[in-house]
Amino acid sequence: MKLRLQLFEFEDLPWFPEAVRAGMMDYLRFMISGLKIYQPIVSLLREALQHTNQTQLLELCAGAGGGTEGVWRELQATGLPQLGVILTDLYPQPTAWQHLHERTGGGLTFMPTPVDATRVPATLSGFRVVFSAFHHFSPAVAEAILADAVRQRAGIGVFEGAGKHWHEVALAAFVMPIALLCITPFVRPFRWSRLLFTYLIPLIPVCTIWDGVVSILRLYPPDQLLALTRRADPTGAFEWRVGKARHWSGSQVLYLTGWPKHRVEVEN
């Protein structure tokens, strides 16, 4: 699918109820973690960490931290036992992050104050990663996120848990709401508000369906990701790799990785 539409998502709206947003993020984290959506990019991320000599991931736009714990555990188990993760977001979710912090024995830590991905404080070091969030941004903001990494010579990886296909739109519209209704009671940390806005006032399912479909339509395909890198890095100071990695289910994960070097490469 080459089409990209810059539609709105409910979770992006500043007036959107925080309890509903948190419920949606909790559900996505549960699904991404349970299905190990980002397992296919572990080897790519390990390579990027080796190129940048980093032992820490700095997650931008972390939301509820979906998928991060699984990636961290895989990297730790395959040669990076000292790896740490710092979760950040413009709209921090310390309740969800504290749960991850405790489950990982402090392996995942977080910044409780807002962090703008286009102007990351120089005091926050590490290989930057963006999971399931890059599509939220307009081309200008997406370019600014990459440009800030280039300016500070900080490696960056962008990962989206889909390959941008029409069948994924159908799954988001028809399968996701059924899964949400079935698994909500098992999502942790437990929230009464999640039950209220799922079963009695079904804002979480309705908004999740809309945001799920729109997310697929907003994904940047590989050629557009590569175009963003050319604008963000006009001097070619970084090596960029863009492509799709295949998940065990047959679906794909879009990825973009970059670190200070001098070559641009597209992979299929």
Model description:
This protein is α/β, with parallel strands linked by helices and 268 residues long. The chain is built from nine helices and eight strands. The chain has helices spanning 18-34, 42-52, 68-77, 94-103, 139-151, 166-183, 192-200, 203-218, 222-232, and strands at 56-59, 84-87, 108-110, 127-131, 156-160, 238-246, 252-260, 264-266. Strands 3-2-1-4-5-7-6-8 form an eight-stranded mixed beta sheet, sandwiched between helices. The chain is globular. The model has no long low-confidence stretch (mean pLDDT 91).
Q: Which spans have pLDDT < 50 for at least 5 consecutive residues?
A: none
Output the radius of gyration.
17 Å
Q: Main sheet: which strands, in order across? A: 3-2-1-4-5-7-6-8
Helix content: 40-55%
Alpha-beta content class: alpha/beta
Query: Major β-sheet, in short?
Result: 8 strands, mixed
Please report the total strand number as a whole number.
8
Shape: globular
Mean pLDDT: 91
Proportion of β residues? 15-25%
What is the N-to-C succession of helices and strands? HHEHEHEEHEHHHHEEE
* Helix segment tally: 9
The N- and C-terminal alpha carbons lie at a distance of: 15 Å
